[in-house]
Amino acid sequence: MSKDKNRVSKADINTEVNGGIVEADDELVEKLRETDIDVPDSLRPENIGGLLEGVTPDDVTSDIHNAATQKTSDALTGDEILDVNTTERMSFTFRKFIYPLAAAAALLIAAGIGYGVAQNRNLRSDNPESIEATDDSSDEAATSVSEYEEYTATVSEDSVEGTAGVDAPEASGISEDTSSVADGVDVSVGYEKAYELLSSMGSYYKYDILTNDAIDTAEYVTDAFSEAAVIDDAAATETAADGDYTSTNVRTDGVDEGDIVKTDGEYLYVYDTSSEHVRIYSINAGRYELVSSVNTLFNVEYGSEMYVSGDRLIIIGNTNDDSYNVLTTYGVYDISDRENVSLIDTAIQDGGLTSSRLKDGVLYIFSSVYIDTYDIEEDDYDTYIPSVNGNLVDDKDVLVQNDVSTSQYVVITSMNIDTGVLIDRKAVLGGSDDLYVSSDSIYLLDEQYDWNSYSFQNMTVITRMSYSEGSLKVEASGTVNGYTNDYYSIDEYNGYVRVVTTYTDSSWTDYNALTILDTDLSKVSVIRRIAEGETIRSARFMGNMLYFVTFRNTDPLFAVDVSDPENPSILGYLKIPGFSAYLHPYGDGMLLGIGYDMDDDGFVSGIKLSMFDISDPENIEEVDKTTIPYESADVINDTRTLMFDSTDNIFGFQVAYPISSKSEWGYNADNSKTAYVVYSYEDGFRSKLLYEYDTNNFMSVRGVVVDGYLYVISVNDDEIVTFDISDYSVVTE
Predict the structure, then answer these.
(1) How many alpha carbons lie under 13 Å from residue 484 in its C-beta half-sphere?
(2) How far is CA 635 from CA 249, 487, 583, 680, 696, in A?
(3) Residue 656: which H helix or E strand, with range?
(4) How big, in percent rounded to 5, are the helix, strand and coil portions of the chain?
(5) What is the pTM of this model?
(6) Is the distance from CB of 617 to CB of 684 less than 8 angstroms?
(7) Residue 329 is inside which H or E element, if any?
(8) Nearest to 650 by CA among 278, 77, 64, 246
């Protein structure tokens, strides 16, 4: 170490921690070199480590929590309205950052440098004006208490104090370079980073500290029922029918999802996983004829689905290798001659199939790989790096979401379905809990917990990845409080990402929140503390409006105006018995709810259909309802199963377990009885069909409408029944 106390080198600030050297930030070193202040011996970096030797992560967490609590308490004294600059998450590894930051802070104090240092480069501001603006900024929170709940003020969430006004990297789709991560995104790349994180799993020093917990525990109130903005419902109009036939009910228009039954209007394609074959039928006016049967060639055991696009058939499923590791397998077939189907190519990747998408002739496959962290070896990449087609994912394509608390990868591959050639592959450590795909971005969601809180408060880390013609690139990452219910709880619209979540605060109380982010996943606005003690059961974003349902004893349907991303507002809500588990747009100003009706004892008394008039979001009405006397509906478990024909104004799905067969103890005595139901809405619900049959293949029945005929397919029973929808007479069975 240099003996000249007026000179500071990088080696001076490098700190020894547990036998390893943690290097200092080059920018910090340069700032310190400019100083002419003598640094006292007690504050020299080599002495700081000794001072901190007895400090534990719990001590640091306790100090942060106490300081935040005191600040919140002080802000709420008297009759003042709380004015808070909301903080971003500061999630870090204790041994990697605490020691060097403390040493650097000591030197900063000694040198008298007013230089803001943030743990994350994305949170550092070099603009003095933006720092000054943060200190003076104020977001007003209007005060109003509704009959039902208190709602959080819509507050712009800038960053840690002294770091507001940061210009986040601009995301503009696929860039011209070949890097896997856009500049400035808090995602690391490579085998070394993956091993570093996985090998630290279970380490005493690994903590995720959420410094915005103090903000969540503050008591905000706002005028939840402000004047409604002009609502544009044009984007909410959906047409599930493609030409003269219905297609799979998907989350995003133009982005197809796999299923076990598909049609192109001339043929039916039925994936029977019990026989490992895809059967192809020609169809005409309710009649059908078997044309060919395709052996999948895979030892598919579960989780199978398929696509049909032009003259291509894609089959996807799971299998196991000789060591019983789960693998995802998929193949592309040429079906230009339906009687003589030929295999083009196959591919295989580590992990179990979690989802897939098809857009513009490119297939995207998502699988989940669990790494046993106790068996990894740094020099044996096979123990902690996933493979595609037997080859390890390249070092540059292994992406690590910093500070994740999971040992699961999401492996993503893209394939040109015309040629069967793989285009790109990525292995993302993190983002393993849910998935949403918009028209040009993939959102990976990873639910995590604040283990430093006795309430185990939860948050979701979101990674946004652009995709175009098969090319994949991470563009942004960010966090929101709580967890999503499903992929309808997150939505991308007009340059913003809207997320509705359920979270638990420090008092073990459930609340719900709406968070709006920009495409860099920086927070723009938030409404918290919605519906105390209830959890979100369904959500639907429809252009400038959000509708979501929470449930505890009743079913409140909320309407939220999100037309101004910086100032979303709750316009109204409706409380009714039971709850809707799925919401589907139904023409202008109408919203269909499918869920459960409940009896006075809280037990399911049937499948409930509700039609909501949402033409006036401030005064939502349930204009009609009906109950189907069955306990379960496949659409509640898998929304892809809904048959929705907007042309003929009908919808259908499978139900199971008749209420009439329940025993006095509440158990269903007849588990084999199922039915396919079809309804229309014409100034009220109209039952068009209830076709009962004996099968234990719940979740494996689909309905499609082609040219005025309904085909109900019981996949694993090799049974097809057809109906003329003009009068629902049976054509074939």
Answers:
(1) 27
(2) 10, 14, 11, 16, 17
(3) strand 650-658
(4) 15, 45, 40
(5) 0.72
(6) no
(7) strand 326-334
(8) 246
Q: Determine how many CB atoms are found less than 10 A away from the CB of residue 140.
A: 11
Q: Are 215 and 86 in contact (CB under 8 A)?
A: yes
Structure tokens at 103: 């040493």
Compute mean pLDDT per 10 residues along the chain, 733 residues long, and list them.
40 40 45 48 48 44 39 32 29 35 42 34 29 30 30 31 31 47 81 89 40 29 30 36 82 96 97 86 97 80 86 92 90 95 93 95 96 91 95 95 81 95 94 89 87 67 94 93 94 96 88 95 95 94 95 83 96 88 94 90 88 95 95 94 95 90 53 87 95 78 96 89 97 91
Pairing of strands 362-370, 245-246: unpaired
CA distance 295 to 297: 5
- Cα within 13 Å of Cα(569), Cβ side: 19
Is 622:591 a contact under the CB 8 Å cutoff? no
| Distance of alpha carbon 477 from alpha carbon 400, whole angstroms | 11
Dist CA 403 CA 557 (whole Å) = 36
CB of 557 within 8 A of CB of 598? no
Distance CA 348, CA 315 (A): 12
Token code pair at residue 349: 């990747």
What is the token pair recorded at 425?
């592959």
The β-bridge partners of 709 are 706, 724
List domains and CATH numbers for the chain.
10-167 (no CATH), 507-628 (2.130.10.10), 635-733 (no CATH)
Q: Which phi and psi (to 5°) does residue 501 adopt?
A: -135, 165
Closest by CA to 413, choosing from 320, 330, 293, is 330
Residue type, 507: S
Q: Quick check: helix, strand or coil at residue 54? A: coil
